[in-house]
């Protein structure tokens, strides 16, 4: 039987078949089973009426049938956008099938057909997205309430598919399964005019923003972030983003928080692990998910949470950095990015305040994220040699139009001085405009400069600054408002937890003594508060302290800051210029303060300083910590010492700090000198709390000095300073060291008596229970408060006495100066009286070590100071100074002290020398009383008006014209450089010798001594009865 061959289809029929498959339409009534085909009956009738015989789809009819398909109301038909995307996908699939056609001409014709079909589908996708109501077959569902609400752009799932949203969030959050046809998005955004895409893109950006609003780092933020990066990589997408009205939201009530919430990028930067105000809290709650009941969790679980948060945060940082970097590389969008960053910084300037309003300021999370991103932007000019630092123009602070930097507290200049200097500089520039004296500014106008914003901006200056300058100063501000503020919050959280735990312990102790329902409620409330504090603290630790790369990038940036600042004063060399350059003087103070704060935090994080070049920081600190002419704020200079304190080998766990104190020339020559100077300067800070602040600051200095004394090269420098500055800075240092020792020990001993009284009250349980509950609570709180005060004061007193002991072993001359020797003797006598005198038994404690009270060690040190000074006393003036102390001296104290020393096994040679000193003091007291008796009644004009003692070297005070004894007024000037009679400024150099009065005093003394010699046969023993004695039974054995 003969076979019949299949009839050959014509090209027109093949084209019709392909277009029917692509567009799912037909011009003939279908008898097939494909329900997707739509019969365009009206279109077919129109074609027939036009005289065409065959109802076949063709390129010429393609757009016509597509419009009819989209405009018609066909039951069960797809909505326009998925239909058009399907058309593109099917056209792509048909184009692949066509490649198997053997007829090359036919294949070429059909390729044109499928290419035109794809182009037409993309074009109508744009038209539909820009005009959703143009075609009738749209989503007919209305939201509840009948209000029209824009749905999410159908383009968004395709973008998610394109950028690969396969990764799940921490809790398995899934993303859309819609896939973008190959090449669809590329063709969608290619060769289209900006206006046709702008509205579409703006809606997509709004949808992306909505996807991440109130999403924490544990949420599914990665697909929107990747989509954002994809869109800005398109020139049209970048342009559309920065022209969006929400790029920089405007409005009369716009503030930092509103900008974070309403801008396109704000919600992306809000994604964080850090806690936020409850009004703006993100989900999932990081604290609850990762750190609830942390004390009961295994360490491995906490480490896993830390690692997870760190990894997700770095994904966020990298994505946001890529977005900004793409926009900054284009000259069309760079200015808009810089303006956005400036607006965010300026709108959140109040984040630098101690108290931050969470409703008006952006979150810590946003600014920490911004900190991490800005540090990444700075990486190109943070090379090890900082080769590009000269491109940073200091005049940006005064003339840059973006940031409000000149209003910030300066390193030294006052706001008036800053304004005066700017005005003077402007005048000079106007006068010498053609003289080329502003070459540095002209050099900064490079092709890479950011252009000035012409859209309604009130610029201070038309000067263009390099991107490096812009990025440097913006990063410094962002770190101040972001990373450093968050680290401060972390420190306060730790303090709140410590106080809360102390309060909880107190409440539980009170409950044990007298339970009550109110106490139970207070304990429960406190436990809940501590749990929340703990979660917040661990969130900070996870995002900030556990991210070593973040901290090291910040340290690299601040190394650039200090090297650049030193460049403004001529480089790393000492001594500093006598006049501080105004460029340095006017720099914002927080540049240096933030560097010091970060170094302190990093020093307490294991291995955070490994690999960091600390030499530049060390030299900077040595140069400026004792230079109030350069850094006015004494607390900032004190913070520099705190950094060094953290770096001491015994304090630091890092090998990076081990050689900092012994291998630097600046350190060996200036470190001890500047520490002693700062010890003196910190006496007067200008703050209302200066009296108490100085003790904490001097504690850090004392610890550092004690360490340096053990380093031979620094000890030699110390001896040299004591010799060269015997009546200068070293004498002032010694005076304040003695003052502090007396105050701290006196306060501690008085507080110990108060503690013992409260302990006695509480131990009498019968009487204690009869007291009102509120009184018991108040007394218990007072008891714990006094315990803390004693512990701190005794620790500081021990440090001061220790320093006096080890320095007096080799340096005695300054102690024995006329203006100092009596002060030192009075201090030693007072300590000796407290430790071996009648009050000794009342100071006995059950657990003295708890309060840092070590009477044996303290007595040994006091006695060694006595002995050290006696050894260096070549002129035998020390015994007389000891015996002239009318407050604490008693000849029997030396014998009592020796007895105690024997029992606590002190060196026998020390005890013997101490007893010999007591004998000399006793003899000096006898001689002094004989001399006083010989003088008889002293004329009032010969007496010092301050202490009512005979003047030996009278001097006139220039302003009040009062005559006083030189030694007494010089002792006063060590602590206060004012005339004690009228508070006028006074220094030792201003004292005027009263030669005439001195001659009369000398004659008076000489004449009475002559009378004494003539009456030498008379018995003068009765005068010795004036010595105040204490009977031996009063001394505690």
Protein topology:
Blueprint: H1 11-23, E1 25-26, E2 38-39, H2 41-49, H3 59-71, H4 80-98, H5 104-130, H6 155-163, H7 184-189, H8 194-212, H9 222-232, H10 235-242, H11 256-262, H12 266-270, H13 286-291, H14 299-329, H15 334-347, H16 364-378, H17 396-399, H18 415-431, H19 439-443, H20 467-481, H21 483-513, H22 517-545, H23 548-568, H24 582-585, H25 590-603, H26 615-624, H27 634-647, H28 665-681, H29 690-709, H30 712-724, H31 729-763, H32 765-770, H33 773-808, H34 818-836, H35 855-872, H36 878-883, H37 891-903, H38 908-935, E3 954-956, E4 963-965, H39 966-975, E5 992-993, H40 995-1014
Parallel strand pairs: 1-2
Antiparallel strand pairs: 3-4, 3-5
Helix pairs in contact: 1-4, 1-5, 4-5, 5-8, 6-9, 8-9, 8-10, 9-14, 14-15, 14-16, 14-22, 15-20, 16-20, 16-23, 20-21, 21-22, 23-25, 25-27, 26-27, 26-28, 27-29, 28-29, 28-30, 28-31, 29-33, 31-33, 31-34, 33-35, 34-35, 34-37, 34-39, 35-38, 37-38
The number of distinct helices, counting runs of at least 4 residues, comes to 40
| Uncertain stretches | 139-148, 166-175, 434-461, 1019-1037
The structure class reads: mainly alpha
Hey, roughly how much beta strand do the residues contain? under 5%
Shape: elongated
Give the total of beta strands: 5
Q: For the largest beta sheet, what order do the strands appear in spatially? A: 4-3-5
Specify the helix fraction band: 55-70%
Distance between the termini: 141 Å
Largest sheet: 3 strands, antiparallel
How large, in whole angstroms, is the Cα Rg?
42 Å
Q: How would you state the average pLDDT, rounded?
A: 85
